Amino acid sequence: MANLKDLAEHLGLSQATVSRALNGYSTVNAETRRKVQEAARLLNYRPNTSARRLATGRAGAFGLVLEQSDNLLNDPHFVDFLSGFTQELAAQDLDVVLTSAEGLATYRRYASTSKVDGFVISAPKVKDARVAALTEMAFPFVVHGQTEADAPYAFYDIANERAFLDATRLLLNLGHRRIALINGPADTMFARQRLDGFHKALAEKGLPPDPRLIHHATMSEDEGYALTRQLFAGSEAPTAILCSSTLQTLGLTRRLREEGLEMGRDVSVISHDDGLSSMKTENFSVPLTVTRAPIREAGQEIARMLVALGNGASVETQQKTAPVELIVRASTSAAPQE
Amino acid sequence: MANLKDLAEHLGLSQATVSRALNGYSTVNAETRRKVQEAARLLNYRPNTSARRLATGRAGAFGLVLEQSDNLLNDPHFVDFLSGFTQELAAQDLDVVLTSAEGLATYRRYASTSKVDGFVISAPKVKDARVAALTEMAFPFVVHGQTEADAPYAFYDIANERAFLDATRLLLNLGHRRIALINGPADTMFARQRLDGFHKALAEKGLPPDPRLIHHATMSEDEGYALTRQLFAGSEAPTAILCSSTLQTLGLTRRLREEGLEMGRDVSVISHDDGLSSMKTENFSVPLTVTRAPIREAGQEIARMLVALGNGASVETQQKTAPVELIVRASTSAAPQE
After folding, report:
1. Which of B5, B22, B49 to mutate to test the interface with A (most CBs of A within 10 A)?
2. What's the pTM?
3. CATH (one of 3.90.400.10, 1.20.1260.10, 1.10.260.40, 3.50.50.60) for A4-56
4. Cβ-count burial of A235 within 10 angstroms (0-12 exposed, 13-18 middle, 19+ buried)?
5. Could you tell me if B114 lies within 8 Å of chain A, comparing CB atoms?
6. Are A278 and B247 a contacting pair at CB < 8 A?
7. ipTM of the complex in this document
């Protein structure tokens, strides 16, 4: 296996010329490029990645920083996202660089040292400091979700507000009036969007929101369980619950069973469904009515957007809000007669 | 912000000398090293990662290739592994490079182009071709689990055989004789090890294994459900079930409920528990008896092993089999009287 030096010596050319020829630079004439490429084949030349990256100025990788404080990695949804993201990039010979950190320092360092060509910003806050910092550095990134920002930025979001508006309307049309919301963390944008949709639907019926029925929590089985217990502890228990993730709904299901309540008869439930491959909402004891948007597609689409930005696309052309399906199954029914 | 060229010009030294000084090479004398480092601070020098990596010959990253055929990424267990692995490396300023591929070509290419300094081999087969290939290339790797190999290799495994031996013994001591096993995929080493433990315990009581009670499947809720249905469809239903993952046990639980069977009374169940943060086995409707080994620790330990190999440790010093706890909760009880 030949390296760049071997190849340059064999051809009687400088290493710089050989490198440029291999990378298709037009400053090297076509005949030389052809000769170099033929020799590279004959001598079984393998480029050193670091050398090639130094020559092209590209890392050939996109970064994802796992924040230790948010529980992204406690979350099976994230696996499906990562699967779509990694496969889409791998098809173009591009890598995913993962690291784990707190705060902005890692983003700045990876950008300034060309470790990656761009970032995914996961689980954006309502006003996300990472977005402001990367915009100021003019470093490419795509937000998975949206945030409040002063300048346009690339993002892939799902229609969270619309989805929870439609889901709440369905429950209202079934006659429910005491509807609870088990939402994502209060500081995330998607939770804000879902709360807005929920409020809008209530407002359409002239119903004021009841703060005792609205809760924010992480996407875990435990939290779904604990909040459902809390909801049924008081005298004003809900007749319907909207839940922001399949895992929370799993805990909710456990608690309803302990309360002796049957989902779809005593309590109506609508869950958000990220299309998880490991746990299907149609397979719950009572098949779930869901707002559904496969998170795997978000991973694929964000990969494509990052590549597009790298190829010079403007951020304004890389903004997408995907629709969310409302799928009605057995966990929703008419409100019990009082 | 100064680059290497700026710094070299400022100091009147060659770029090679400055680079070596910054990377602490002893071929540059101490006084020059000191001068270079001081100037780097003053001029706010940021190394280009590709350049530094070219100089040191290290990628500063370890690779994990997601095989498209095995469903590693359908698996929430993998998230906890990745979390431990990434955080441990990040603490040492090392990255994780993820890609997705089939077969050995990617391993060869990443190794030969120095994209990474070593690999994790996940979900090894009974005789794993990746291990043979990387051993032949003398490229560093740590296997998460074990495989049949001709030469020693670095690995981190858990005591799968012992765990399932102990679990089966517990069920036998409770008087169970028709014990089913819902195992991992038949071609994986961990499933083979668990089957061996199961067989040994039966043999100790002089019981022949019943092939109708032994099944191999992927680690999903669906499979746990389908196999449990199958187990109770015939006339020779089991009184106890060993299950290889929390997700399979989730499906098993769903099916037992549909069968009108109560776990811990009508049917005893022991599940393997990877210590998932998103779904806890003590929170199942009937708290589960489990064989427990947190997969997050595997991620951390394998990260440390890869770093050690990179620093020259021999593979023989990087071999570890972690113990597995048997935790008895409410899902196991004495076999029903016939």
Report:
1. B49
2. 0.84
3. 1.10.260.40
4. exposed
5. yes
6. yes
7. 0.80
